[in-house]
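Request: When convenient, would you put together a sequence paired with its structure tokens?
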Amino acid sequence: MINKEQVKLVVTDEDGTFLDLGGEDFSRERFGAVFARMREAGCRFAVATSNQSFQVEEIFGELAPQISIIGSNGAYVHPEGSDAQVSVASEVAVERVLAAHEAYPAIPLCAVCADGAFCERGADEDFVAEMTMYSHNMRLVDSLADAEARKDVLMYWSRVNEGRLADSILSLRRKIGEAMDVVDSGVGGGYGYFDVIQQGVSKASGIRVLLASFDINESQVMAFGDAGNDIEMLRLAGVGVAMGNASDEVKAAADVIAEPCLEQGVLKVLEQVFGR
């Protein structure tokens, strides 16, 4: 049994972990109750996601000011009560991604920037619609090489048919080299998702910013995740929790296996630790 006195920061991924990739919501009543008990116990709550900060704020509504946000896979970190820190990709890194995109035009990309996101005109409509759901500040450009789409880039999103996921990641890794990293971010609905992220910038690096801000250590963190971009933070946390729907690789990086996201696995663990 996890001792609640030892947990001072709970960090959860969103899609496929706290939320279903298909858009299933969470029980706000149950979360509100356990969130209040976490606060009473002196435990903070953070969301670590590929999504942008304003999407997180919309999801959590009135509770948003009381949570910390690690957005864009660690490129945006907003500790509760402090100013946000933003890490922008170098021009060299952006150039390498754009070269890879030109070499593999069938692999769609969405540029995630400091003030919004960009997809190309002519991209698959369903792809654009889903990326818009995660951004809520989407703009269309003729090319991701356009000046507005390459200014203050935090990361890139992509989605391909699930059977193409591994090959797509490998192809982009080879072309981009060490300028950026490519990590899977989950599967669902027949699609595989992945992110092109800055080297050294991740959900785990975002957690380290929170640790410094709150003056706590790694052993006092409990983290939840389901995909490849969660592995580093699960290993970092004192208690790493993989969802029942996670891959074997993610489960191997965890200390605890929770029930799947569709069965509210995160809430069930939090209720076990902090009471109902």
